[in-house]
Amino acid sequence: MKLMKSLTCLLVAASVSGMLCWSQSLRQDSRTGGESTKHDGGKLAIERHFESVQPQPRPQFGGALPGRELLQERRLSRARLEQRIKSIQAARPEVATQGAALPGILMRPALTTGALPTSVATGDFNGDGHPDFVVANGLTNDLWIYLGKGDGSFQLPRVVPLSKGLSPVCVIAADLRGKGTLDLVVAESDTSTIGVLLGNGDGTFGYETEYQLPESPSSLVVDDFRHDGKLDIAAVMVTNVNPGTTAVPYIAFLSGDGTGHFSAPVVTSNWGFYSTAWNLDSGDVDGDGLPDLLITGPGNENSQIFINNGDGSFTPGATVIANAQPSGPPLVLDGRLGDINGDGCADAVVADLNTMVWVALGDCTGKFSNPVPVYMGANNAAVRLNDVNGDGHLDIVTGAFPGFEGTSLGAYGGNSINVALGDGKGNFGTARTYVGTGQAYSIGIADFNGDGKKDFVTAESDADSATVYLNDGSGGFGFPQGIYAGVAGQITINAPYSSLSFADLNGDGKTDAFLLDDEGTNAELFAVAFLNDGTGRFTGPVTSDTGISWITNAQSDYRLGDFRNTGRLDMIAIGTNSSFSNASQYILYLKGNGDGTFAKAMPVTTTGAQGILTTGDFNRDGKLDFVAVDGSGSLTLTMFLGNGDGTFRSLAPVPFNTGAGTIGAIPLRAWTADFNRDGKLDVLLFASGNGYWTNQSALWEFDGNGDGTFQPLGNSLQDFNRLLWLT
User: Fold this and answer.
1) InterPro entries recorded for this chain (predicted)?
2) Does the global pTM surpass 0.70?
């Protein structure tokens, strides 16, 4: 997989990120400063009102625990935050989720939360008919309540400190007493407890009641597991015992009495299938009327069903996602159960860090079909099932955090939600991506603006914020946005092989997008077009198999151009200069069909066709040519004159010394223009010592003679100290 290998280590190590309702060790800070406490009988309503509070920058870390320095930084950040808190007696201006658009890049607005938000839940907490949401904050050890106005905006948050438990990693809103008032259930990692806060129906909550567990809970779910009309709690726990060495506490079941109180936990032990389960969901997978559990986690990198025995215990059932998959080992973080194909049986959808989700169809007997990947185009940390476009079919929604893949482009993905619309038969369309503010580790779904369409809210651990995404009714959630662009059944294009180019590929007068993507089991190279529909959106992807593999024929640069004078754009690519061998020197020409697709072609080996290139009619014969620049230390420029039919003839290579230090220089970028204004095309070249990490860089100007040759090279602009890139 192209996914950066160290990503796995990052996920396992960064436990305090609170991914998916998961954390290991967070410590409670002291609380000082502006808060107003109201006591009304048994009520506890501690409110802090914020005025223009922005999230503080947070340090990066990769250890298993945050460490003293991180905690100290958090304390200082929180102290600074507390100084900006003001207690008020009257209503203050309210915080809106939508701000005025600014020139330049439009960034989605976000709402401030406490430190290290780990989980979000939605519901009508004050009974006004408008959905609200609550965010659990792992480091400040509190819950922030955002009461909705019904128009997509929210009142200033009410902060409810957790008086007993430490490090909330998951929060659930549910009517535990059956009286129409929502209560809160919180998994608290550091104290190995579950906290219950009963709602007062006005947006406030009573004192926390704690229930002790034998191990730290990482996630929980509320459901009627005994089918008696009363809600119960099931929590999955983490342990430090090595898998398979001994039976360890794994699932804690707390039976509810219908009044908001729960029994001592009934514990189901496990022989190390997971030692660190991350998430769970409930649903009846075997048709007996009792909710079962789907548990996901990184232990064996798969997901498993646990069958409800009806007495508070659970028995291991089917494995939904096995460790071995054609695309490589899955990195499972979250999973959900729901009927996605309309047969009345619970199906499983499991989020995979490898830019996909796995869909396994259930048969109502506890068994599942072989999982099929649905590519979402991001590092999926959370998954939800909901009908977001109102067609009656469940759709897939994932939240993503950033990931880096080392390609020639070096693309980032994440900080987004991703939506794939379902057809009700178990199939899903091309995923669309909506960029947000931070890492979307948890997703809440509700109609926040009263238009009858499901909106989203995300908890973003890295940014200490929550972002609201308003639905346009078609499953769209506003700008900035993009689309997943992958080859079906293969890996994502989230980090493509090449950079993007923009041109009219289908002759409709609209600017389209194009790139090269390396996909498939044999690393096939695909030409990928995204056609502009004229509204600022791109359809796609339209893929064309080039017929070659980037492993055997690696490309370093490409250009689009009308090389046949047909009015249709073609593409040429040249080899990479990484090996400096004859085998890497070739021209790949793809004939454009005028509709965004390209014909297959075989590479033509020729000397000098590697490195970087730029195009132009250098000999003024009306046919498009290109120049390739290659080498290290001593660079070489080679002119390839176009014959007007997609073939080229090369002129003698022109070597020139870089003079850019003893380590040599590598060509990074070339441009074509009439730089000296003599009516003949010239070439400007930028090269850098040792590539990007440079001590010396230089610019060369090659003045054209109008016949495909260049004047003798004059002085170059050299010694740009530590210049990394030009555009």
Assistant:
1) FG-GAP, Int_alpha_beta-p, Integrin_alpha_N
2) no
